[in-house]
Amino acid sequence: MPRGVGKALERAITTKERGMFHKEEVRDGKSEFMNINRKEIFQYLCLHPCSYTSMICKALGLSLHTTNWHLRRLVESEYISKIAQGKNSVYYPAEMIAVSDVPILEILNNEKARAIYVAIAEKSGSFQGEICKILGLQHQAVIWYTKKLESLGLISSLEDGKYRRYYLTELLNRKKEENAMRMKLFRDWIVKRFQREMLSTTILRLTEDKIVLRIEKGGSKAVLTLHTNPFVTVLS
Amino acid sequence: MKKIKTGVFGLNPLLDGGINENSTTAVIGGSGAGKTTFAIQFIRKGLESGQEGIFVSLDENKEQIIREAVEMGWEEIMEYLKDDLLVFIDASGKDFSNFIRKELHTFVSDWKKAGARIAIDPLTPVIWSVQDNYEQRELITMLLKQTRKVGTVLCTLEEHGTEGNLSGHETIIPMYLADCVIHLRYKAMEGSNSRMLKIVKCRNSWHSEEFHPYRIISGLGLVVKQGDFGKTRKKESAQELMKELEKNAGNLPKNAFQKLKETFKELSDAELGNITYAELMRYIMEEYS
Ligand SMILES: Nc1ncnc2c1ncn2[C@@H]1O[C@H](COP(=O)(O)OP(=O)(O)OP(=O)(O)O)[C@@H](O)[C@H]1O
Ligand SMILES: [Mg+2]
Q: Could you tell me the residue range of the domain that residue B264 belongs to?
């Protein structure tokens, strides 16, 4: 049996593009997203908007230096926005998130806050003491985060004798429902931006939860998978 | 027809040994159902037994799929990649449908009987790349008819819309045209028992008609629970049936009797489901009374 059917098929399918791959890379002919790390950072921010630099480093296994460099470039090119939270900043894809939603996503990106939120979701009416036990967290931490979650309207509490019980509010569900419209705008925005940059853009896949785009220019190409359901993915 | 193993643990007995060589299989499932994992298992099994593997990716880029496969615990695919025994191809729906229309024919005549395993994941963007339903059907017919000459083909289909309702034309068309259709039903919002596999059809072969729970396990991929269908064919049971048949030999035409004898030699309990031997004999005798 002759070998090599795979390579032959690859040549046959990509034949039209073949000539282009050998061209010199023109510097301004490339997109921000042709760099794999930069692309992954942007994809990560779609999945977890309003992350701190340290979270991005950890999730993608990149150094702080590299991550900062790419974040700066993406901010400069206005693909992402940066907003101060305390003494650090969080980042999110521009046009994806309303500024007023930043604190909600910021807190839910925090591992402990998220665990507490999920614990309350799983057992509505939990006491602080119960949450401490289930999650193995210090009492102080639970007090601090429940307060924070409550002040943002993500949870509510009711007094029950000596202690308080915690419940989820409808806020996150409402955000999920309102998301679809906003994501339509976000998708339109990003596709327009690519077109303005003369990138040939193909939508490979479009669902409620994500859009997969292929961009090509001057022989370089990249496939971007952008998640578009931040109020769902933030809990993952 | 020669059966080949799917590479999915637990699945082969449900397909009476595997899928037919040089056939086409469609794996349908929603997001996260395990379509890509299934496709990789299928390719990997082929590599193991010396068949070349081709993975055409219409969705994720190939780096990502390779990385996910390695994370699954399948590092050895890197070796096959080096030797070009495994090739990943990134293509858009348009690229691919142009290829099908213009070049597939020549390609197939060059590579007929290459005996490869080909995965197309997912096929959906290829269908979407043309507008008209009739054109879609023509395109997919051409694809499935031709590629199976090169090897055994598996394509995945995205399930959109309501759960378990496989009536969108982007699933209907390939479902009719494929030889074997496997549905991975996955309800992401329900707990750990939400994954179910069902074989919708399999041409030229017996297959299970039940829903089988499956799991995705790191290092193994999809593992399908067989239930009662996993048991190997019981020759003793055919013996019993044979006795019933002999008893009625006098009331059957000679050639019918011979034919049934042959059939019963190959018959398994699983095929009968809950039809008992006595019942089966009664139905047969009714036919000849
Ligand atoms: N290493 C792993 N260990 C265990 N389970 C895994 C692993 N990797 C993936 N999974 C499971 O497989 C699922 C995804 O499988 P896969 O990518 O094959 O699905 P798919 O049907 O191709 O999805 P999509 O529609 O997104 O392409 C995950 O949601 C997860 O449940
Ligand atoms: Mg997939």
A: 228-289
